[in-house]
Write a structure and sequence with these properties.
By secondary structure, the chain is of the alpha/beta class. It has 11 helices and 7 strands. Helix 3 runs parallel beside helix 4. The structure holds NADP nicotinamide-adenine-dinucleotide phosphate. Its main location: mitochondrion.
Length: 331
Amino acid sequence: MGDDAPEAAPLLPFLGSFEYVLTVIGLVYTGKLVLEGLWKLITTARAHLWSRLWNKKLVETYGKWAVVTGSTDGIGKEYARELARRGMSILLISRTQEKLNKVATEIAEEFGVETEVVAVDFISGRPVFEDVARHLQDKDIGVLVNNVGVMLPHPMEFELASERDIWAHINVNVATVPVMTKLVLPGMLLRGRGAIINLSSIAATYPIPLMGIYAATKAFVDFFSQALEWEYRGSGITVQTITPSYVATNMLKFSELVHKPGMLNPTASTFVSHAIHTLGYAARTAGYWAHGIQCYLVERFLDRWVFMYGNYLWNSYLLHNMKKSQANSRR
Ligand SMILES: NC(=O)c1ccc[n+]([C@@H]2O[C@H](COP(=O)([O-])OP(=O)(O)OC[C@H]3O[C@@H](n4cnc5c(N)ncnc54)[C@H](OP(=O)(O)O)[C@@H]3O)[C@@H](O)[C@H]2O)c1
C-alpha cells in the first residue's frame, strides 16, 4: 500500500538538493537579520519614545541623592542638572573647587534641591576615595553617574603621550568606575534600589589607532558595566552603559570640525536631555538617537579592520587639520 502512495512534491521543485540547502541557510540568515532589526527597532522605540510617556519619579524609584563624577563641565554637568530637574539632591565630584561651587549654586537656585561638592583630582588614585567615602556616608544614594573621563589632548602616536596622560587614563577613566561603584553598591543593595550609569563610548567597539589608550579604557568601562548589569539584575539596581559618539564638549576642543555642535555631535545638554529618558529602559544605549544609528551600523555591519583603518585615517585627518589651523593662527 505504502509503495503506491504518491511522493510529496518538493517545496521548491526547480532546485537541486545542494541549492535547496543553500536556499534554506539564506532564508534562515535573512530571517535572523530581519528579526534582529525588528528587535532593535522595538527596543530603541521603548528607550527613546515609550520612556517619554512616563514621568519617572527618580527619588521614589532610586533614592534621594545623585552622585555625579566630573560634574563641572560637559556631559557630567548636564547629568547633574537633569537629575536635579527631576528633584534629586546632587553630590558633585570634580577637580576644580571654584567650578564646583558655581555649578552647585546654579543647580540649587534653579531647581531648589540640596547640593554638596567634593573637590578631588582622580589622577591621584586611591587616597582621594577616603574623602569621597566620607561625603557618601549616611546618604541615601539613588543614582551614581560614573562620568568622569579624560582623553589625550588630541589624537597622537602613543610614544608622544606623557606619563601623566597614561596615569590619567588609568586612574580617571578606569579606576574610578569600579571604586565609586564599590562605594555606593552596598547601600543600594541594602535598600534594594538604585541606578548606576557608566559613561563608555562608541570608541569601545574596536581598538582605535591614534587614540588607543582612550578606546581601551572605554572598552574596560563597557565590559565592566555590562557584567555588573547582568550580576545585579533582579536586585532592584539598574546598571546602564552609555556609548556616545561625538558630543561637543571641551574634550573635543582640539578640532573645530568635531567641537562645533551639529546633528551628529550634539551639545552636552541636548545629548543628556535624550539620554536621561533611557534610564531604566535600556541597559546599554548610545543615549542619543543619531548616535544609536551610528553604533548600530558600526556594530552590525563594519568589520574590525574597516573601523580601525577608517578611524586611523579620520584621526590623522583631524590631526593634520589641527596642525594646519595652529600654523595659520601663528601667522
Ligand atoms: N565628549 C565626547 O565626545 C564623548 C564621547 C563619548 C564618551 N564620552 C565620555 O563622557 C564622559 C564625559 O566627557 P565630557 O566630554 O563631558 O568631558 P569634559 O567636558 O572634558 O568634562 C570632564 C569633567 O571631568 C572633570 N575632570 C577631568 N579630569 C578630572 C580629574 N582628574 N579629577 C576630577 N575631575 C576631573 C572635569 O573637571 P574640570 O572642570 O576641573 O575640568 C569636567 O568636569 C567621559 O567619560 C568621556 O569619556 C565623551
